[in-house]
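Hello again, I could really use a second opinion on something today. I owe you a coffee for this, so here goes:
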Amino acid sequence: MKVLVTGGAGYVGSIVTEELLARGYQVSVIDNLQQGHRSAVSSGAEFIKTDLKDKVALGKVFRDGKFDSVMHMAAETVIEFSMSDPRRYFKNNVANSLNLVDLMLKYEVKQLVFSSTAATYGEPRNIPIAEDDPKNPVNSYGESKLMFEQILDWYGRAYGLKYVAMRYFNAAGASEKLGEDHRPETHLIPNVLKAAMSQDQSVSIFGEDYPTKDGSCVRDYVHVRDIAQAHVLALQNMNEVKGKAFNLGSGQGYSVKEIISEARRITKKPIAVEIKPRRPGDPAILLASREYALKELKWQPKYTDLNIIIGSAWEWMQKHPQGYSV
C-alpha cells in the first residue's frame, strides 16, 4: 500500500512515517518545511516539498503518486497563537485541508486518517473525556480541527470518503532517531528538558491557581510512538472503523509541577521555574478515556510510564542539543 503523509517532516508526522516504513508501507511525505525539518524525514520515504494551499502542485503530487491512502498530519498547532490569529488557523487547518480531500476524491484516494486533537472538547464536563462528550473548543485551533472533522463526516456521507479522526492529547517522547524540535517550542516536556540543559533558561508555569491538586494544569501525556502505532491500526482497520473518532491518551494525568519534578529526577539537573499568569484558552484538566481505542482498534500502548516518555525525550535531546539543525 502506498501512503501519502502530509506534514511528514513534523514531530508526529515524521514518527508516523517511520512506523509506516517499519511495517512495509511505501511512503511519500509532503511538507512545506515552515515548521518541519527535512532531516526528520526517514530515508526510506519519498519527500516532496509543497504546500496544501498550492492546488496545482498538490494535484501533480496526486497525479504522479497513485496513492492508496493519506495520513493528514499537516496543521497549525500552537494554541497560544490560535487565540491571537484565528484566520491563520482556519485557512491552514480547514481551507487548505479541503484542497487535500477534494484532490483525494478527484484521484480516487478514498482513505484518510486525520490527525485531530483533544482541543476539540474545550473545557471538559467529564473526566476522563470520552469521544461522545460535548465539543466546545475554547480556541481556534480546536475549533478548526472540529470543523474539519465535521466536513469529513459530510464527505463520508456524500462521496464515500473513508476516514478516521485521531484525537490525541499531549504527544511526548521520542523514537531512537526522531524527536521534538519546534520553532518556537511551546510544549512543556521539551522546554523543561531545555531548561535542564541550560543554566540560563527557566520553565514557565502559566497559572498555579487552577482547581487541580497543586494548582497547575493537568494533562494526559501519550508517547509519540504509541500515537504512530494507533494511526497505522486505524489505516489497517479502516473498513471496520470508518467514520469514527478515537481518543489517544495514557489515561493518566500529570500536572505541570509533576512533570518538572520527574524531569529533575531523570536529568539530575536543577530546573528553574517562573510563575506566570494563565494563558487564555487553557483548560484546567485534559484527561482521556482511551477505552474506545483499546476496544475498537485493539490499541495497546507500550510506552505509558512517565519515566519512559520523559527519558526518551531526554536521550534524544542530549544527542541533538540543537535539534535538527546539527
